[in-house]
Amino acid sequence: MERHVDSQIEELKKLILTMGGCVEKALDEAIQALISRDTNRFKLVHEIENRINEDHVKVDNQCMAFLAKQGPVARDLRLIISLIKINTDLERMGDQSVNIAHTGKDYLTRTPIKELSDIEQMSTIARRMVKESLDCFVREDAVHAQKILMMDDEVDNLKQKVFKDLLAYIKKNPENADGALDLILIARNLERMGDHATNIAEDVIFVSTGKDVRHGGKYSPQSE
Amino acid sequence: MERHVDSQIEELKKLILTMGGCVEKALDEAIQALISRDTNRFKLVHEIENRINEDHVKVDNQCMAFLAKQGPVARDLRLIISLIKINTDLERMGDQSVNIAHTGKDYLTRTPIKELSDIEQMSTIARRMVKESLDCFVREDAVHAQKILMMDDEVDNLKQKVFKDLLAYIKKNPENADGALDLILIARNLERMGDHATNIAEDVIFVSTGKDVRHGGKYSPQSE
Fold first, then answer.
1. Chain B positions in Cβ-Cβ contact with residue A56 (cut-off 8 Å)
2. Which among A54, A167, A185 has CB closest to B178?
3. Helical spans, DSSP H, in chain B
4. Domain tally for chain A?
5. Range of the domain at A37
6. Residue of A76, A111, B49, B67 with fewest CB within 10 Å of its CB?
7. Which residues of chain B lie closer than 8 angstroms to A178, CB-CB?
């Protein structure tokens, strides 16, 4: 028999998936605007962020109402608390997309510096991390969530590469340092997106297993 | 008559104040190590961060236990949820201090670039923001919390100044671009510290007034 609380939890899960879709879209628009040099597309990032912010308040309110009315314990409680945390991470990912749009807009007023394939790849992985971590959340799949934690290393390595390339560029072309710094800051934003997706994956492991894998806590699927 | 839940809430408030003290200390050590060029002091930042991480898990666990056992509603519920959120912000401020320590250590291997008074001032304001926002949380002082939101503008303006100065420096001294980028990233970390303290101040307003001031929501003390 389906409990009434299950349908409320299902609704919250749907809402958080929609928010995640918006975060992916905001990030993709910001990066595609940068790559296609189409300033107009940056506007869309702000529109999507407004939607994310609306959903952010909505999820928080629904979670508070659920806690007050249902007084959940055990797995249901972990799930609602994780939803509140994931909600915060998604909202901040929306902010990061807007930061990318702001810096990207500045960048497009300057001399183009390098092909942006590394930055595009960082964005692709970060978006995959958001999507997969939320899919894991809905399915409560701690095993795949563990794999997402490792994807963050790819994002970090690409960031290191972008930093190194751009520092070398600045030394040869100091007059274009502003544009290079823009790209460095965008790479830093993308690294932060990966960190937020990592937080989500850690929350999934916590909901599904009750194990706290933050700060070096271990979850080993084999021992389940 | 004091409720049993009140003493539990008092204990959680004390724990979060201790954590806040550690965050202030971690940030101060990282910046003072940088200014005094004393690499050994960076180690202390890592030690303090370990303590912050331990408290982070402890606060989360105590909040979960409180929610499960007491099933709080209204103001008590808002308070516990805000504690969970503030806890996350403090933990991330610990991370930022460690980031500053890492980058600072790199910086000390390079040619010194500029006097660091702007960076020191950013750190002083960020620390004041953490301290005051947590004091407001304990006192449930939404009026002063509102003032903390404005202090973040000072941090942002100083960051803009640091960025501008360092870009001008890089253009004249491209061979020292690595060190300049280190300082830019440290200023960016400090800006993020200000953002986290702002989140805490917003949570204080939410606990005390039930008003959500995120995303342009307004709280006007006059209308209370």
1. 214-215
2. A167
3. 4-36, 40-70, 74-107, 117-139, 142-172, 177-209
4. 1
5. 4-223
6. A111
7. 167
Tell me the C-alpha distance between B79 and A68, whole Å. 13
Sign of CA dihedral A115, A182, B200, B47: positive
Report whether B119 contacts B162 (CB < 8 A): yes
Per-residue tokens: B179: 């060190």
Query: Measured between alpha carbons, how far is A219 from A29 in angstroms, rounded to an integer?
Result: 35
Q: Which CATH number characterizes residue A124's domain?
A: 1.20.58.220
User: Where do we find the tokens 């939803």?
Assistant: A83
User: Residues A64-108: pLDDT tens digits?
Assistant: 999 999 999 999 999 999 999 999 999 999 999 999 999 999 999
Q: How far is CA B179 from the centre of its chain?
A: 25
**Whether B174 and A178 lie within 8 Å, measured CB to CB:** no
Q: Quick one: closest CA in B to A73, which residue? A: B68
Grouping H, G, I as helix, E, B as strand and the rest as coil, residue A114 is: coil
Q: What is the pLDDT of residues B116-156, one digit of tens each?
A: 999 999 999 999 999 999 999 999 999 999 999 999 999 99
Give the single-character DSSP code of A213: -
CA distance A197 to chain B (A): 14
